[in-house]
Amino acid sequence: MGTRTVLQQSDITRALTRIAHEILEANHGASDLVLLGIPTRGAVLAERLDRVLADIEPEWAHDRDQRVGTLDVTMHRDDLGHGIGRAPHRTTIPTSGIDGKVVVLVDDVLYSGRTVRAALDALQGIGRPRAVRLAVLVDRGHRELPIRADHVGKNLPTASDERVTLRLTETDGTDEVVIVQPGTPTHPERHQPGAPAHADQQQAGATEQTRSEQTRPEQQGGAA
After folding, report:
1. Residue 138: how many CB atoms within 10 A of its CB?
2. What is the value of pTM for the model shown?
3. Full set of structural domains in the chain with CATH
């Protein structure tokens, strides 16, 4: 049991800088680019990417207030009927909208892919972007849906029963990514209220619990 730190503050900063350059290169500049962060920590990462892009691309810096927003996916998740309660966050769309734009969804940890699927559903009710891309700080594998990130800060091989926790200064007081081994107690005091562990990983745990209950009804609970 225990935790292992795999990314520190300097690693996260370098990863975001690289992602920002990749986004600009893939788009051949900043034209029609929009960032939408998925709360909670995906929204924080989108704000950080915004600052990096403003430093390296004059076109982005010129009208950056029209390029960054947040996309709440709570009501589009497929685990709403599994007793997992989540408080909705605000969706904020840039004033220029997303029609005809290249939308880059920003999230913290890519796991099962279900959060991203919910984000794509949420986008349908907002507008019709020309293209949608995905940027994540960590890809830990174990996909349950055919979803792949376009820009990845760190590919991190993990066991399915491990937890990957991203902590950011804005929400947790520190910058780090840690792998938490099975059975290790959590430390909720390091997280502010309203900033839960990554929903993709929570949902995968809920899915596993449902499977366990369906196949082994004599047992209570399931994998976390």
Report:
1. 25
2. 0.81
3. 3-215 (3.40.50.2020)
